[in-house]
Amino acid sequence: MHNKLTIQDIARLAGVSKATVSRVLNHNPSVNGLLRERVQRVIKEHNFIPSVIAVGLADGHTRLIGVLAPPLTWPSVPEIMQGVAEYIEQTHYEMVLYSIGLERNHSDVLDNILRLKIVSGLLAIFPGELMSHLTYRFEQGFPLVTIDDQAEPTSLPWVGVDNHTSAYQATRYLLDLGHTRIAHLMGPQHYYCAIERYQGYAHALRDAGIILDPALVFQGTFVPDSGRQCAIQLFSREKSDWPTALFVANDQMAYGVLDVAEQLGIQIPEEITVVGFDDNNFSALTRPSLTTIRQPFSQMGRQALETLVTMIDQHHHTGKEALNHPEAEETQKSMHSEQEDTSPRIQIPTHLVVRTSSGVPRTLSIGL
């Protein structure tokens, strides 16, 4: 019987409104002390366990935050979710995870989530084809934040890294080691980050006075097999045509390069230096260990959740004020317009992690 009690039942037994019960459950300090004690006594006497959704609906503001994310098998997603989980534990919110695959854009899933009003806001992680749909929903006033590197940022609040500058740093590191013949394995060209990383690589070469050689740019797909294919193609050339260094646009492809090099007996970094991008958990364990650009995935998750929670709280507070205002509709429009104009784009710094896959060119090492 106890499990079947509702917030409405508790309100009736305590002689208060549903909204008061909800505020007590949400630890709202505005509730009168005597009323709070009365509600808490009834809750304790009946061993009442509230539904997170019901608490929110009674107050017009759910305590659930939705997270749209690719499968947890994606290399960076577990780290991002760790940051999300760490931050949400510090709040009064709970999280519901929606896993989205790549076979369709899932706009119907998103519409159902919003129609049911289960969540107060959404964090979208690498949303792919959903980006335009999410942007539309945000511009309609729904709290949304994205962690993404696939599409060019829109009006959506966005958390990520500066891919151009990071790739420039990786290439500059190779130049400073003495490499002048540096190849690049790109990610898929429909990914915004792949283009930015290529541009950072090209920019560093240009600043060093080196003309980019198109024969040293390879096309990949961000998966290990494309790294293997690139390596086979590269190492099948005459050795005199090899670059002395290869900057790979992500660690997954770099793993494929290292795998082929090991199979062919090619010494890294003695015969060719390899640098990746991401610093996935496995990168410190490869043979040799991979020099790479470290993306702070866990910090990105924390920062994105903090941004979203702040947005939700402001949205709820401003929305309640607007509903009691004689010009409520205009106030809401102004709020949404201001939200669009000030949507944050938060870039978290990366850093280069130097391991054993990189070194000076063989010609220089011989002379040392």
TrEMBL record:
It comes from the Bacteria. Residues 316-348 are annotated as: Disordered. The keyword Nucleotide-binding does not apply. Residues 5-59 form the HTH lacI-type domain. GO terms for molecular function: DNA-binding transcription factor activity; transcription cis-regulatory region binding. Residues 316-343 have a biased composition (Basic and acidic residues). Keywords: DNA-binding, Transcription, Transcription regulation. The keyword DNA damage does not apply. PANTHER family: HTH-TYPE TRANSCRIPTIONAL REGULATOR GALS (PTHR30146:SF109), LACI-RELATED TRANSCRIPTIONAL REPRESSOR (PTHR30146). This is LacI family transcriptional regulator. It comes from Ktedonospora formicarum.
